[in-house]
Specification:
mainly alpha, Growth Hormone, Chain: A, 2 domains, two-stranded antiparallel ribbon, disordered N terminus
Length: 401
């Protein structure tokens, strides 16, 4: 089976093999994180490490993810997609195995850094392959499909991790990641062709991307959507558990429910790609985010954030991001089809930078108030709407129709 692409020129097609590989690679980050997080206390005990040191293994992974995307995208624009992708998956497999064997927290930190770097490198190339093989509404639909299917990973990741802890050892979670990376390596070797068609100097590619007004406008919307998600991630446990008394189990159920809402919205957006202008879908998502942020701010300032307001507000907030992030990312990538790797690198790097900056800012209220979180959501949404409204000049008709 082959998915018809929007490219006018002849070349490789986006087959189900290629699409499935892209989905698996995109899911590697949440799987490598969410399966591992439930085991933090056991890791600290087995490796004779403090809680802070164990948490740093998460930080080094995210640092590696950001750097891997920043470096891997422009490099693949220069030399091609296939060989760098194969190398990155080989390194990912090896680093994941080293994580499983780690005798100390220091080795674990280094292995997680390499794991994140190779995973980020693979992810940015996978997104670039989609941009190479599709355009217009096909690009929008495919990006939403990839995000929607890969979005299941944050839902099942903690469940898989918990099951592993019940049945075996925490090191098994890294063997699962290593096995998936090995499967992806074989799949790429067999079924993913070279897709890059245009090569140019890295400096020229970077300048072309950063000078593209349309790309920068959609980049802002994309990055701020990720900032909104991490404002929620950083504060939801305090709001629902510390302020409203939910048990960890009920909080986990609510967290999964919100993730399901985001995934469904992403898949719905994929079906709307041929029927509704992509900018209109993004605008609808931003409008819903503004309404949710306003409700959360009112609830936090005047009513001490009652449980119904928090639950409903968080659900609308997260579901709306399924309409914003994947579509804004697709629109940004559509502006720079000849620099797909560099464009994806900038998108991925800024995405993780926003996560790192917004999470601690949103948590300034601690366990006492959710005002900083709600205020940040409204500020990011207002700036995103401004970027979307003023970005008319950079729009591509093939994506907007």
């Amino acid at each position: 089976m082959t998915l018809t692409t929007g490219r006018a020129t002849a070349g490789p097609a986006l087959t189900t093999t290629v699409l499935g590989t892209v989905v698996l690679i995109t899911a590697i980050a949440p799987l490598a994180t969410d399966m591992y997080v439930p085991a933090f206390p056991l890791v600290a005990h087995d490796l004779d490490a403090s809680a802070t040191e164990v948490q740093l293994t998460l930080t080094t992974f995210f640092v590696g993810m950001a750097l891997g995307q920043l470096v891997g995208g422009p490099f693949s624009d220069r030399v091609g997609r296939r060989r760098p992708l194969l190398v990155s998956l080989l390194v990912l497999t090896t680093a994941s195995a080293v994580c499983a064997f780690s005798p100390s927290i220091g080795v674990m930190m280094f292995a997680r850094l390499v794991q994140g770097f190779s995973g980020g490198w693979a992810m940015v190339i996978a997104r670039s392959v989609v941009v190479d093989l599709t355009s217009g509404t096909r690009l929008v639909r495919t990006m939403n499909l990839v995000s929607g299917i890969a979005g299941v990973a944050p839902i099942v990741g903690p469940l898989i991790g918990a099951a592993i802890l019940q049945l075996s050892h925490w090191r098994v979670s890294f063997w699962v990641v290593a096995s998936l990376a090995a499967v992806m390596l074989v799949t790429v070797a067999i079924g993913v062709p070279e897709t890059l068609r245009h090569r140019s100097a890295p400096a020229q590619m970077s300048i072309a991307v950063l000078r593209n007004r349309g790309f920068i406008g959609y980049l802002v919307v994309f990055a701020f959507s990720m900032g909104t998600i991490f404002a929620y991630v950083a504060t939801s446990a305090f709001v629902l558990q510390s302020m409203n008394g939910l048990s960890p189990m009920l909080y986990s159920v609510d967290f999964a429910f919100n993730a399901v809402g985001l995934t469904i919205a992403t898949l719905v957006a994929a079906r709307l790609a041929d029927r509704v202008r992509t900018r209109a879908v993004v605008a609808a998502g931003l409008t819903a985010t503004a309404l949710a942020g306003g409700a959360l701010l009112v609830g936090a300032v005047w009513f001490g954030m009652p449980l119904p307001v928090a639950v409903a507000g968080f659900f609308v907030l997260m579901t709306a991001q399924g309409l914003i992030g994947p579509n804004a990312g697709a629109l940004a990538s559509a502006q720079v089809p000849d620099q797909a790797g560099t464009g994806s690198a900038v998108l991925g790097f800024l995405q993780w930078c926003m996560a790192g900056v917004i999470a601690p800012l949103a948590g300034l209220g601690g366990e006492r108030t959710a005002v900083p979180m709600a205020a940040i959501v409204l500020a990011l949404t207002a700036l995103s709407l401004l970027a979307l409204i003023t970005n008319q000049r950079g729009s591509l008709p093939c994506v907007e129709s």
